Amino acid sequence: MAVPERQQTELLEFVRPAAGTVLAARELHLVTLRLRNFKGITDFVLQADGGNLDIYGDNATGKTTLFDAFTWLLFDKDSSSRKEFEIKTLGPDGQPTHGLEHEVEGTFSLSERTITLRKVYSEQWTKQRGSAQKVFTGHATEYFVDGVPVRKQDYEARIASIIDERTFRLLSDPAFFNEQLHWQERRKVLLQVCGDISDDDVIASDSKLAPLTEILGGRSLDDHRKVLAATKTRVNKELEQIPVRISEVQRGLPEASDTAKAEKDLAAARAARQRKLDEKATLAAGGEAGQKRVRLAEVEAQILQVENETRKNHAAKLSIKRQEQMMAESTLANAEHAVDRLITALGDTRERAGRMDTELDELRSKFRAAAAEEFTYTDETVCPTCGQGLPAEMVAEARAKTEAHFNACKAETLAKLDKDGKALRARKDEVDAEIRRLDEQLAAARAGFPALQENVTRLKAEVEALERAQLDFGPAHARLVAERDALKASLAAAAAAPDTSAIDAEIRALDERVAAAEREISQAQQRSQGLARIDELAAEEKRLAAEYERLEHELYLTEAFVRAKVRLLTDRINSRFKLARFKLFNVLVNGAVEECCETLYEGVPYSTALNRGARLNVGLDIINTLAEHYGFSAPVWIDNAEAVTRLIPLKSQLIRLVVSEPDKTLKVVKEAK
User: Fold this and answer.
1) pTM for this structure?
2) In Å, how far are 255, 336, 467 from 326, measured between CA atoms?
3) CA proximity to 25, closest of 668, 666, 660, 651
4) Rounded distance, CA 322 to CA 460, Å?
5) Non-local CB neighbours of 599 within 8 Å, separated by 6+ positions
6) Are 505 and 213 in contact (CB under 8 A)?
7) How far apart are CA 635 and CA 627, in angstroms?
8) What confidence score (pLDDT) does residue 560 get?
């Protein structure tokens, strides 16, 4: 049975080793490779006997053809992973030679057992009814395992039971890891081979990071960094508004004045005015006219007293309304800021919940896929060495062991997925509860908005009405004015009254002094209220500054955490390799880091300026580590090997293809054991 595409894409899930686990070694060696009519080779047998080989030949003598035949036999592709390539022998005119069978047969040793694979590719010619000649109708490929013809899917399943194609490429091609895998796949390989670093391990590595455990509170580091960024933006915006709001209050402050002096002046002006009124009354006393003049003075004094008292009460009422308006506007602004904070927190929390839902869906999909995975196995009933039938109990035992291993791996996978799912579900429930709490708080805050806005509008209208209002001195004032006018008319008709114009002028001047002192005292009260509001805003600014400093410290801790994880993870992975080093994170301009996976050798990136010799040796170093991790080694082919003077020791079988101009035919040299 063919290997499902899902297993091929998850190249490292085939053997399912735990991080850092070293499996029992299985070694795949090429014993012989025979080619018949394959590309330009008519008949050639490569006798490797499982050892290392150097194959010499001039250009176009067939060195790469051997490599192509090897990969076509196993995976139906050439050595460059191309599925579409010309297998047939081409004539001088560039056209393929027809009527030939194109055959590759390879014998391999695997853990002291041998297996022979054979593929035959041929043209199909059919004689059509009514025609004397056969016509070409297509191609056919025959498959053989240990000499027994099998179906294509059984042939591919037999190879897959040994190793899947992409893992084989990782272990046999020095360039595959660095040049064929996407950087994210390379990173995944390294993490599965060497193991990831948990957040607890990172925090335990540096005592300065200990506060992060409580700060994160179960939230992921990435989520917390997003919350920090959003909160910093909000706090910074509020901090920028504080000076503006203070400036607005300062612009409305009356000039500073000496309240004690103003109160003293008010008392002195009132006393002097009363003395002048008494003086005027004495001057006007005498007879009926004198009595009328005394009464007129009394009435005018009462009128002035009513008017002054009314103005004073109006000014006090206006001051109170202005203060109420200022406090209502401040309350509304604070409510708006609170709603903004709740909206930001709610948005962050919902985004986090959405990511958790996506993760839960992915875990459910993985769980269903793992649960649906069924055990498949093809019994080997014939001994590949002697060709005799295997006892039924050995066949059953082999099947039972394989099935038990499959079931154990499946159970372990399902248990881990279930555990991860429950843990994520619990965290998701907490986040959902937080969303409900924030929703309730936001709804309550918004519910109070209309009343606050209505209160501000009402108070603003009341202040404007008071500022425009004509003073109503009341009916008593009207009666006094009528009495005054009557007295003045009566006195005008009588004999000329004593001249009191000078005293009247002094009284008017004293009235102005009283009004000025009262205004100065009212302004002082307004200034005192404004200064108190400025103190409130300054305290709010101090609180926000402290919060911003706390956020900066938490952000510093998260960046220190990332740097520590970079160091620990990089050191752990690099320790598994002799030559290869890996850059797993890029440091950005703002100090943050992003994941990457760049192979380095002595600080030089593989993808830019590394020479071929260094690339090959780095690739072989990676193959050594991966072979140890997977417990499997495969033949490693190196084309154009003459470009490298010295290769590092390799634990796998090595086949070097060397360009040699003097060798016009292939020359095979076995490495002395």
Assistant:
1) 0.53
2) 19, 15, 16
3) 651
4) 8
5) 177, 178, 186, 580, 581, 582, 605, 606, 607, 618, 622
6) no
7) 11
8) 87
3-state secondary structure labels for all residues of 177-217: HHHCCCHHHHHHHHHHHHCCCCHHHHHHCCHHHCHHHHHHC
HEC readout, 249-285 = HHHCCCCCCCHHHHHHHHHHHHHHHHHHHHHHHHHHC
What phi, psi does 252 have (nearest 5°)? -90, 0
CA-nearest of 285, 269, 278 to 301 is 278
Contact present, 513 and 265 (Cβ < 8 Å): yes
pLDDT of residue 663: 93
Ranges of residues in the chain with a pLDDT under 70 are 1-24, 284-288, 290, 382-387, 494-498, 590-592, 673
What are residue 667's DSSP bridge partners? 56
* 153 φ, ψ (degrees, to nearest 5): -65, -35
* Residue 353 one-letter amino acid: A
H helices, E strands: number in the chain:
16, 14
Answer whether 224's CB lies under 8 Å from 216's CB. Answer: yes
Q: Which helix (H) or strand (E) covers residue 300, if one does?
A: helix 287-372
Residue 409 near residue 348 (C-beta atoms within 8 A): no
Q: Tell me, what's the pLDDT at 288?
A: 64
Extract long-range pairs of 9-17: CB within 8 Å, 24+ residues apart: 11/164, 11/166, 11/167, 11/170, 11/185, 11/189, 12/167, 12/188, 12/189, 12/192, 14/163, 14/164, 14/167, 15/167, 15/630, 15/631, 15/632, 16/409, 16/413, 17/192, 17/629, 17/630, 17/631
| pLDDT of res. 621 | 95
Q: Give the Cα separation of 463 and 454 in Å (integer).
A: 14
d(CA 459, CA 465): 10
Quick check: 416 and 295 in contact, CB under 8 A? no
Name all domains of the chain by residue range, CATH numbers in brackets.
Answer: 5-182+633-670 (3.40.50.300), 224-561 (no CATH)
**What residues have CB less than 8 Å from 140, skipping those under 6 apart?**
121, 122, 124
DSSP 141: E
3-state secondary structure of 149: strand
Look up residue 570 and give its two tokens. 């990089």
Q: Which pLDDT score, from 0 to 100, does residue 47 have?
A: 96
Average per-residue pLDDT in the chain? 86
Q: To which residue do tokens 């908005």 refer?
A: 449
Q: How far apart are CA 224 and CA 232, in angstroms?
A: 12
What one-letter code names the amino acid at 39? K
